Amino acid sequence: MTTARDEVLARVRAALTSGSAGSTGMSSSAGPSDDGMAADVSREYRESGEHAVGSAAALELLVDRLEDYKAEVHRVSAAEVPTAVARLTAALPSGDDVPERAESAGSGPTPGPDAIAPAADTPRGRVVAPSGLEPEWVAAMSDGGVEVVVDTPEAPLTPSDLDRTAAVVTAARVAIAETGTIVLDAGPDQGRRAISLVPDVHICVVRADQVVQTVPEAVRLLAHHPDRPLTWISGPSATSDIELNRVEGVHGPRTLHVVLVDAASHRTLTWSG
Amino acid sequence: MTAEHTAGTSSTTTFLGMPQPADPLRWGSSFPEAARRELGNDQLRRNLGHATSTIRAKRAKVVGEVPDWEALRDAGSALKTQVMDNLPELLEELERNVTARGGVVHWARDAAEANRIVAGLVRAKGTDEVVKVKSMATQEIGLNEALEAEGIHATETDLAELIVQLADDMPSHILVPAIHRNRAEIREIFLDRMGDAPPDLTDVPRELAMAARAHLRRKFLSAKVAVSGANFGVAETGTLSVVESEGNGRMCLTLPETLITVMGIEKLIPRFTDLEVFLQLLPRSSTGERMNPYTSMWTGVTPGDGPSEFHLVLLDNGRTRVLADEVGRSALHCIRCSACLNVCPVYERVGGHAYGSVYPGPIGAILTPQLTGEPSDLPYASTLCGACYDVCPVKIDIPSILVDLRAREVESGSAGRGWGAAMKAASMVMSDGGRFRRAARLGRVGRVAGGRDGVIARLPGPGAAWTDSRDLPLPPKQTFRDWWAAHEREGADDERSGGDRPGSERPRTGRPGTDAPGTESR
């Protein structure tokens, strides 16, 4: 008996044979080649940008793009990260009481309170952290009176546990300035995918030396470990399904804080949120 | 489907949807009939006009930002050509890599086989509920209805798909399936069908989105099995990718224990780094964003992170038929961005339902007939203006394929009823001057056939083949030949009386536009 696999593959082969049989032009230039398929494809597009990794210009571009998609950006020096993370988590609203935002093309009455009632047992400011998060940041949050729950491979939190946390703090793998994108690759300082998904607020710490300008630069970096689960994040969760108006905040975190660590110059804490 | 109805809602719903068809690729009446019906729906045209003009402007802005856009399109097109040329090897490579990473690969010859595989996998997990990420492949095979018949309920989690599902409707756009609905209609659907919508729900988009969030969250947290499609499958690594906005995709791909992904065999890309091309082309073409909010990539199973069981169903369902055609083959390059729908003057007016397929618009007009391999009037659902080709991120020459498909319909004699007879009649008339003159005069009789709006909606006899798919403007009162003959006489009169009118060397012959009755309808 022919299996579905054999039959589908046979159909594909037959389709390619019958298709190229009658013509001489197309198949010879783009026919199957056993090695070096890449040689056939012209790559005239930019493989990198004009801004160096982590340069001031790359950072400016990233900030512009992040803010355009309603992420809240906080630029700090390396020494200021623990304080920044502690202050952001200490200021967390309880449950789902997230500040309302004006929708892009909204007219009509001010939105009412969120349809979701905060879970009754959501402690104020409970934060989940991946097991490899910088201990100094965790200590600063705890010192600020925030309950930090560490998600470990040995004792992973359940989805319901995660639903009862107000926020998650993670690091990142790489950020793309031109598109305002942060990529997580589930490294120890970022944790498994669920922890940066279920909590309503995501606080993500990005180092300047992780900021590249273009998509190809990021993809080539990620290609070193393509089998890691990857999450590309560009702003908070959003939808454009209602009359194509963008509304930020649906199923994923409705608020995205990006703590951008400027390696070069010492900066004063600025609070845009 | 059975939906909980909130008490007190009126029995007359104004959001009547397109009922679920038996075949998601062939439903409803012919395109001309369906288009005529849809054109009568003013609300639909207003909704579509607003939505498509919004998205066109967004796309144009973000594409304009990219200095190497054309080079990216070239690379995208070349990569997809390479995929088709090497499809057997790449499919085997993908299978090998997914399997090596703990995934299970299944093959499906057609929709029924794919549905059987998915239903079997769900039943084996002992559950009768699945959460779903929006996916064209599962729409194409009618998975939800097939699962329902097996007693398994599939919940669509994309906001627009949820709207469509609750209204017992069909999608009308590849990217925004509920594009034919406005906020007031969506509010009504939620209040009537969601079961747990807040009674004081307004039609503010943010509130509607929050109602969907609350409705679905419990399902996400407790679901055992999720079903998704895939935007890209990387042969080199076995990596699958889903591109989305709301986070419902991440929920489905991450929280349930079992993930089943249904992917068309054409969704392959050769190498991981080829993602650098498509992840630039897709979001800007699709939603008009520099990057969509969330893109997930996973490779088989990762212990301790996400589903512990992963199944990939590779779907043919007519794709190899398309592949066998060297001209039409490039329809398989499509990355489902839907930019061609948003720029199409035909789609903008008739909407997605008129195409009678889950793949509407210009890409649907070439993909649907090739996937089904059956006679179709969809290749005529186009003005051949070429806007679709201009915006296509992988440079599919849709107009040329449309012309090719039309030629084949004509050759096979299956083109629209009476079309061949009409063309033969026209050829007979036009090949002889005398016959043409008489026929043109006869055309004036057609003024009687016209309505008060100055168009003829239906011609009798072989002429019906023309008016089946378009209205005909009323013929002018005077034919061009009659006008010319009369004009020549006038010119001759002018010349004869020329000596009495010095200075009038340029008689009216030089400005026919002002009084040429034969051109009044141009």
Commentary on this structure:
The complex is a heterodimer of chains A (273) and B (522). Chain A is built from 7 helices and 12 strands. In chain A, helix 4 (81-90) packs across helix 5. In chain A, the strands form 3 sheets. In chain A, strands 1-12-7-4-2-3 form a 6-stranded parallel β-sheet, sandwiched between helices. A 4-stranded mixed β-sheet of chain A has the order 8-5-6-9, sandwiched between helices. A two-stranded antiparallel ribbon of chain A has the order 10-11. The longest helix of chain A has 18 residues, at 4-21. Chain A has helices at 4-21, 25-30, 56-68, 81-90, 135-143, 159-163, 215-222; strands at residues 72-77, 127-130, 148-151, 167-170, 174-176, 181-184, 201-207, 211-212, 230-233, 238-242, 245-248, 255-262. Residues 21-36, 95-123 and 265-273 of chain A have low confidence and may be disordered. Chain A is α/β, with parallel strands linked by helices and 273 residues long. Chain A has a domain at 71-96 and 133-262: Rossmann fold, CATH 3.40.50.10420. Chain B folds into 4 domains: 42-66 and 86-317, 3-Layer(aba) Sandwich (Rossmann fold), CATH 3.40.50.10420; 321-411, Alpha-helical ferredoxin (Fumarate Reductase Iron-sulfur Protein, Chain B, domain 2, Orthogonal Bundle); 419-473, no CATH class; 480-519, no CATH class. The longest helix of chain B is centred in the N-terminal third of the chain and has 23 residues, at 42-64. The radius of gyration of chain B is 28 Å and the shape is globular. Chain B contains 22 helices and 12 strands. Chain B is of the alpha/beta class and 522 residues long. Chain B has helices at residues 31-39, 42-64, 69-85, 87-100, 111-124, 136-140, 143-149, 159-166, 183-193, 205-222, 248-254, 275-286, 319-323, 339-343, 345-350, 361-372, 387-391, 398-411, 419-430, 433-449, 464-467, 480-496, and strands at residues 104-108, 129-132, 153-156, 225-228, 232-234, 239-244, 258-264, 268-269, 294-299, 309-315, 455-456, 472-473. The two termini of chain B are 51 Å apart. Chain B has a 6-stranded parallel β-sheet, sandwiched between helices. In chain B, strands 8-5-6-9 form a 4-stranded mixed β-sheet. Chain B has a two-stranded antiparallel ribbon with strand order 11-12. At the A-B interface, helix 1, helix 2, helix 6, helix 7 and strand 9 of A face helix 2, helix 3, helix 4, strand 1 and helix 8 of B.
